[in-house]
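Reading a protein record of the kind used here takes little practice once its layout is understood. The fold follows as a row of integers, each naming the local backbone shape at the matching residue. With these conventions in mind, the following record can be read line by line:

_____
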Amino acid sequence: MARHGMRDMARGAAIVVAAAAVLSGCSDRGASGTASQAASAATEAASAAASEAGAALASASAEAGRKLDQIKGGAHAKADVKLGAIADESGGRKAAPVAVTNPTSESRTYAVQVNFKDTKGNLLDTVVVTVSDVPGGGSKNATALSNRGLSGDVVTSVARAVRY
């Protein structure tokens, strides 16, 4: 599903760049190359950018999985985690408040995987936030910050949470 989102973004970027190339080709008779060549180059560039974004997302997803899989003896704890409203940070990055409530009687650490998705449900980014020393019967806050700039409407969800 995320790959379709990336492909759609690449196609959209290619169309915009190609249209700009065609328009500038019509007004600049002295330019070398044809509009078709410019459109082809734009499509290749957009495809390369989408491929890099897809690779970065796959890498972030794999790293998040590795981090959580390394935790031994942990308990599933999605119900202990609530996410707040997303805020814009510098460079287009998104920040989501993470509130963890520990229902046990002892202090625990939480590893929380937060997914950033577009409104169609396409995965845009994922991060793991560690919230250390959440007191027994208490709460603690942290922030999930996207790895890169994200555009458009973004929603977050807790993919996994482990209490240990």
